[in-house]
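Notebook entry, structure prediction.
Reason for the run: the old model in the group folder had no record of what sequence produced it. Starting over properly, with the input documented here first.
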Amino acid sequence: MDQTELSERPAVAEQSALAASASERVWREVAAKSLIWWRRLRWPALGFIAASYLKDILFRIGLTSALTGMLGAQVSIGSASLSLLKQGVAIHRLEVAQPKGFSDGKLVQVRDVSVRVDVPALMHGQIHLPEVALKVQEVHVIRDGQKRLNVDALKVSQAPPKEGATQTAEKLKALPRFKIDRAVLSVDRLVYTDYTKAKDGRPKVEVFDRPVKQKTFENVTSVQQLVLAVLSNAIGPAALKGAGIMGAATIAGVGFLPIGILTVVVAKDSASQTFMMDSSRVFDKTQEFLRQTGELKVVDKMKGTLEASVQGHLVRVSLKELPGRMTQVTLKARKLLIPKPRFAAGLLYQLDQRIDD
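New structure, fully documented this time:
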């Protein structure tokens, strides 16, 4: 090894040391600046993360409270998230408990709900949801020993209280505009427990697999309408005669009831049904029903006609006595001179329950 090579080695080593020292200084400077920025931004960053997490918690709590109040049964939600950037809502493990007076357990178990939200409309005070998808795991319908159905114990199935026209208009005006363009429903299983057909103390239990497969609803204009559409279609295969929720769904304007549920004959401008009862008793029960649900205007028992105002509709009822102590009831309903045969059918369906009682 010559003298030149020996003299170059210390120089190379010295250059390497200088380069390492410079690199270390650069990294120290970067680390120091990063630490400064972290100290400046850590609280805003942590606050943003906490706010996002808190937003979802508050959204879940608010949604749970609203649904519980609307249904009249305890609602629980596993998780719920609202994203304005993604313009969507995701809800998981939504469960509705059995109403008061029925056995413990769940009436409805929803696996997932996904919602697309029209954010610009939301900014203008309107709730416009282009699409809602509901995947229901199970619906458990119970008929107790007194022939009461658990779905009829829900608030959405009850007849609305009588209110003055002005008060009702003010309430509707205060509500934000609501519309779902398209809702898709799937139900994995329907369980029907009937205590009226119990043997040896054990109720009759029927299970229907996949009662609803990708059922599509369009132009849903209220949360109540959506809930009634979901429940009425889910319990459809059980063909529950006298289910008040079906009448409530019809009155609410749900035009997508399952086939085979309504025994009412719906025409273009009226609805009619035949009762196995003499005309005098049917007239009295119809008069009582209209007095409880609306405001009677005309009562003429001799002609067998009644008129009433029910939820903003002008309702006319005519009775026709048939052979064999049967009575045909024809009901017409109009709102702003426009025929509302589905509303008439809903009233007749509820009248049928009163007469059967």
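Summary: The mean pLDDT is 78.
The old model has been moved to the deprecated folder.
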